[in-house]
């Protein structure tokens, strides 16, 4: 079973995932407006996951 990390999000250019001491973090932002995050935390390797369906499509090009 996965857990959900704390997230700070608003309709602007950034999303902040608060998950201290995480390892093996995977972050993905799809052009269709889907943000996903997963990571392992702690000595007991608890799995955290997050999926956000954003309001609209996004430009995923790196600046």
Automatic annotation (TrEMBL):
GO terms for cellular component: cytosol; nucleus. One of its GO terms (molecular function) is protein-folding chaperone binding. Coiled coil: none annotated. GO terms for biological process: chaperone-mediated protein complex assembly; protein folding. The keyword Magnesium does not apply. SUPFAM superfamilies: HSP20-like chaperones. Keywords: Chaperone, Cytoplasm, Nucleus. It comes from the Eukaryota. InterPro entries: HSP20-like_chaperone, p23-like. Transmembrane segments: none annotated. It is found in: Cytoplasm; Nucleus. Acts as a co-chaperone for HSP90. Belongs to the p23/wos2 family. Interacts with HSP90 in an ATP-dependent manner. This is Co-chaperone protein p23.
